Structure formats: structure tokens, C-alpha cells
Amino acid sequence: MPGAMAPDVLLTAEPSGKRVPISAYLGKKPVVLNAWASWCPPCREETPQLVSMYRAYGTKVQFLGVNLTSLDSVPAAETFIRRYHIPYPVLFDTQGDFDRAYSVIAEPMTYIINQQGRVVSIHVGALSGSALRAVMEQALASR
């Protein structure tokens, strides 16, 4: 998948229920797309680091969370978002379309997408603070 165009799937924006394409977040700046589930211990470990990276890089990089809601639930995901004070957009994969299109094999997974909408890299599992800094630099270099 690296080098390929990022699949454009429709996801749900809660609480409005509006369906939003991933492409709505592509094209302006590099994207760090993180797929997670509320019950996932590595996701709980990684999320504070992502929030910290958003605060440091959020003006240069678009952060986007995708809750794997077909394996989770909207109420549990919303509780997770509040608990970790996630400031960036989170969309909900209620139908499993993201899971299939992005070949999610573990939680969490992080995808770096350049401004042209191509997947630059895929990271399986939780990323440490230093690994996330390296990912941010990679995202910035992918412009």
C-alpha cells in the first residue's frame, strides 16, 4: 500500500451522523491517520503521545483519528475521546469500510499520507514518543 493513493472511504462524523469522505482531509498538508479502538491497551498508551504531537505539529500536519467502530462502539469511543482530550477530528468506521480498505491488521495502526494523497508509510502497533517524532518528520518531508 505505500506509494498507492489513500483509499477514499466514507466514515461517520458523530454525533451528527454525517458521512464524511477521508478525501475531505487530504490535499492541504500531510496527514497522520491513526486507527484505534477504545478497548485496545496499546491505543491507550499511544493516544497521549499523539495528542502531544498534535500540539507540536498540528499547524503543519493534519491529524485524523479513525475509531474502528465496527469492532468497538460509539459510546465507548466517545468516552475514550473525552478521557484523552483528543483535539483533532475523529471519524467512526461503523461499517468496517476503513478496516477493509486500509487492511487493518492490528490496533493501533498509523498511516502517513502526503499532500498528493499517497500513502507514504504504515506503522503497526503503538508508537513511542520518539517514534512519533520521527513519523512527524517523515510526514513533513513527504510534502
Strand order of the largest sheet: 5-4-3-6-7
Tally of strands = 7
Number of DSSP helical runs? 4
Strand content: 15-25%
Give me the strand/helix succession: EEEHEHEHEEH
Shape category: globular
Concise overview:
This protein is of the alpha/beta class and 143 residues long.
Explain this structure to me?
By secondary structure, this protein is of the alpha/beta class. The chain is built from four helices and seven strands. The protein has a five-stranded mixed sheet with strand order 5-4-3-6-7, with helices on one face. Strand 1 and strand 2 form a beta hairpin. Helix 1 packs across helix 4. It is globular and about 35 Å long. The relative contact order is 0.25.
Helix and strand layout, with pairings?
Layout: E1 10-13, E2 18-21, E3 31-36, H1 41-57, E4 62-67, H2 74-83, E5 90-92, H3 97-101, E6 109-113, E7 119-124, H4 129-141
Parallel strand pairs: 3-4, 4-5
Antiparallel strand pairs: 1-2, 3-6, 6-7
Characteristic terms for this protein:
31% helix; five-stranded mixed sheet; two-stranded antiparallel sheet; alpha/beta
